Amino acid sequence: MHKLDTLFREQKIRQLDSTTRRHFIKECMFGLGGVALGGLLNSCANSDVNKIDSVKNKIKSVMGQVPHFVPKAKSVIFLHMVGAPSQLEMFDYKPKLAELHNEPCPQSLLEGKKFAFIRGVPNMLGPQAKFSREGASENWVSDNLPHFKKIIDEVAFLKAVKTDQFNHGPAQLLMHTGSPRLGRASLGSWVTYGLGSIEKNLPGFVVLTSGGTPDAGKSIWGSGFLPSIYQGVQCRSKGDPVLYLKDPNGFSRNLKNKMIESINSINQNEFLEYNDPEVLTRIKQYEMAFKMQVSVPEVMDINSEPNYIKEMYGVNVGRESFANNCLLARKMIEEGVRFVQLYDWGWDSHGDQQSNALNHGFRDKCNQIDRPISALIQDLKQRGLLDETLIVWGGEFGRTPMQETREGKINKYMGRDHQGDAFTMWMAGGGIKKGAVHGRTDEIGYSAVEGSVSVHDVQATILHLLGFDHEQLTYDYQGRPIRLTDVHGEVINAIVA
Fold first, then answer.
1. In angstroms, rounded to a whole number, what is the distance separating the alpha carbons of residues 51 and 67?
2. 138: helix, coil or strand?
3. Which end of the chain has fewer surrounding CB within 10 Å, N or C?
4. Average pLDDT over the chain, rounded to whole?
5. Rounded to whole angstroms, how far apart are CA atoms 238 and 300?
6. Residue 43: left if φ>0, alpha if ψ -120 to 50, beta else—which one?
7. What is the DSSP string of 202-222?
8. What is the DSSP letter of 63?
């Protein structure tokens, strides 16, 4: 109980300190100026913001808002391949590119273009995989993905996604927050801000990583300017699913409950005094952490799954793997988690070493994801969850049709540089038109010739399928309503069922 006494004493000291003349003069000089300026300009908020109730509304209940229209999906699993996989070895078949293999790249394809590494004149690089038409949809897929062929008719392809970013960090930020700069809220945060959580004992937004951390860091699942209760909660597929999930020896759950109640009592008093919405966030996070100690270990236990399910996904119990994370994603969706984000690191296929060469390491990466992704879609379908779960797959950009050269020298292995003009993403599940293909690239897979869509269009479509008009899902910040898609974005109706 010594810790509780310390907390109460610190709270009392802080309260007394804030009422002294010294505190007023030292801390509130600029605050008074801001109040005066705000009263003169009246531009940073409407009159409702001055009411205490509006501060409380900054933190919506975990039930979220009512969608703008009937949603086609209620949950999302976003599979992001960190490093940007080559569409030319997976889904975008270009026989003409095979004919041009090892030919010098025409100067017209290089003029006015910015590349991360290419310098000088590179050679064209033909597809490093064999392709075939599969399923009733007869869509193209390479032999790098043999299991994917079984579920290809469930998928709608976007063959001409465009981004204006060609470096990993900014491109990942743009894909997941709507801006290439830090400070914006992530897609998962917007979804939980809009819809809230289904299950009260689990976070609404969960993040799972494999292979490493994305280049943009944890900002791509952060809440930005939204209250921090909406940020993603990172779980681990190896060891304790969440750090500090277990109580110390001799620390009973009843004592922990009393401690949480005491801390939140202090926080409630602080909120009544300062009206800071982040204090409400702190209260909810303490409550959620207490609930997670019971709920998370059970959900994260893949050992409890039948052997045929573990075999279906190809899981490695006790190890961190993309296969484990796909199975965990299904379990979380089944338990009511709203947004599950998977990041799989290692797709930056430059060809400067064997581990990232298109005919070596890239094939290994394809093998690591092929079976789990196919199992995830089949498993959700057999459980009746696919129609209400939206699955999104893609990287932050695509790859060039020419072989990468560095300092004018061809790389030792087969690889491609970053390319943002046109790359492939796909969606499946809730509200998606099965077997659809939208967009087409030129004969070498370099630029879009029809159906070009932006990253903001992809985001607008995801929100649309969840029942939201992306232009109306906003949050007041710095004097104006902010939205995920900024001032851009249109729903890609061609792939909506």
1. 25
2. coil
3. N
4. 86
5. 10
6. alpha
7. S-SEEEEEESS--TTGGGGGS
8. T
Positive or negative, the Cα torsion across 187, 192, 197, 200? positive
Contact residues for 375 (Cβ-Cβ < 8 A; gap 6+): 147, 312, 313, 314, 326, 327
H or E segment to which residue 52 belongs: helix 52-57
> What residue spans define the domains of the chain?
2-43, 75-241+300-495
| Rounded CA Rg of the chain | 25
Per-residue pLDDT at 24? 58
Burial class (CB in 10 A: 0-12, 13-18, 19+), 201: middle
Q: What is the pLDDT of residues 223-244, one digit of tens each?
A: 999 988 899 999 876 666 565 5
pLDDT tens per residue across span 357-389: 999 999 999 999 999 999 999 999 999 999 999
- Contact by Cβ (8 Å): 119, 174: no
Q: Is 305 left (phi over 0), alpha (psi -120 to 50) or beta?
A: beta
**What is the tens place of the pLDDT at every residue in 433-492?**
999 999 999 999 999 999 999 999 999 999 999 999 999 999 999 899 999 999 999 999
> Distance between CA atoms of 14 and 16, rounded to whole angstroms?
6
Question: What's the DSSP call for residue 343?
Answer: E
Architecture of the domain delimited by 75-241+300-495: 3-Layer(aba) Sandwich (3.40)
b/e for 228-240, b at 16 or more Cβ within 10 A?
A: bbbbbbbbbbeee
> Do the Cβ atoms of 448 and 419 come closer than 8 Å?
no
pTM comes to 0.84
